[in-house]
Amino acid sequence: MSLAGAGLARGREPLTLGAYASPKTFWERGGRLDEHGINALFVHHRSIDEALIRRARAEGARVYAEFATFNGSEWLGRPENAEAWPVEPGGGRSPKQTWFLGICPTNEAFLQSRLAELERLVTTKDVDGVWLDYLHWHAQFEDPEPGLPETCFNASCVERFGRETGVKASTPAEILGRHEETWRQWRCSVVADFARRCRAVIRKHKPRMLLGNFHCAWRDDEHGGARRRILGLDLPALAEVFDVFSPMVYHGRSGRPVDWVRRNVEWLGSAVRKVQIWPIVQAWSDPKGRAVSAEEFEQALRGGLAGRSSGVMMFTLGAVAEDAGKLAVLKRVYRGLAG
Predict the structure, then answer these.
(1) Residue 17 pLDDT exceeds 70
(2) Which residues pair with 277 in a beta bridge?
């Protein structure tokens, strides 16, 4: 049975066949979304305007807005926001990891600023859904050797931890030495709580709007359980908040074989039953690292539709548009799946 037929046999809705990033290069090169089987665009919210939405829908695609949550680069670039810098057990600021700089996720001024921007998004742009991104404690998980610092121990985190758990411990040594599991679970609750606050803002204005999450694709047994332990991602808890999970199965950037995509998508489908699964796979070739061939891209796309997955997208549409081989793969796979 074909992959498309398998989807229909399970009684699914039509597959979401998506593309991530601005379609500008794709359109400039004469591409049409419908001619390539693309029925969903995922674009950073600040890059979305009425013209993009109008053209995408004319070509048969829904538009979903990517919305950054705990990315601290812009906020921490202003000296007056220094108290929001993530702090390590020794008391020092946790450095930027490769290209990513997180934030202290208990800094209420920062959180309020993100919620206000989210509200502006859903009240001014006619998008079909919102995909949260960077919803994790400070770390860099996309590298072959991920940066996994232990954070955050600034005043707002330690105070809120004590208030919400009843634990009387004021130092990192006490917290990690005597109350580590309580600390790990509380950190997960901080992430899930902000996700719920985001959902409340969205549903206040758009009760039926779809809410998704781009997130680390690691299984429970990868990197010593760091997805939960360091990033603070409790998948069953988050499944109570989101409609769709989009694991970032970037095999090339992570130094993994392409079959890792399929294996981890299958694992996620068995580990969490409530949400839909629309993975994001890698098409882009890192000029400073590993190239992704057209053949690998095809394997990744098909692997992204393994198990319970009901959709897939690629990072990025621009990278595909600039490579004739990948563009041919995209068109063949997506149009074949669309029937």
Answers:
(1) yes
(2) 245
Domains of the chain, by residue range, sit at: 3-338
Reduced 3-state DSSP string for the chain: CCHHHHHHHCCCCCCEEEEECCCHHHHHCCCCCHHHCCCEEEEEHHHCCHHHHHHHHHCCCEEEEEEECCCCHHHHCCHHHHHHCCECCCCCECCCECCECCCCCCCHHHHHHHHHHHHHHHHHCCCCEEEEECCCCCCECCCCCCECCCCCCCHHHHHHHHHHHCCCCCCHHHHHHHCHHHHHHHHHHHHHHHHHHHHHHHHHHCCCCEEEEEEECCCCCHHHHHHHHCCCCCHHHHHCCCCEEEEEECCCCCCCCCHHHHHHHHHHHHHCCCCEECCEEECCCCCCCCCCCHHHHHHHHHHHCCCCCCEEEEECHHHHHCCHHHHHHHHHHHHHHHC
* Alpha-carbon distance values, 69 to 110, 138, 298 (Å): 10, 12, 31
> Is the per-residue pLDDT at 10 higher than 50?
no
Are 208 and 129 in contact, with CB atoms under 8 Å apart?
no
- Residue 31, pLDDT above cutoff 60: yes
Could you tell me which CATH number the domain at 3-338 has? 3.20.20.80
Question: Rounded CA gap, 337 and 116, in Å?
Answer: 39
Phi, psi of 21 (to 5 degrees): 95, 165
Q: How much of the chain exceeds pLDDT 70, in percent?
A: 96
pTM of the model: 0.96
Rounded CA gap, 92 and 315, in Å? Answer: 34
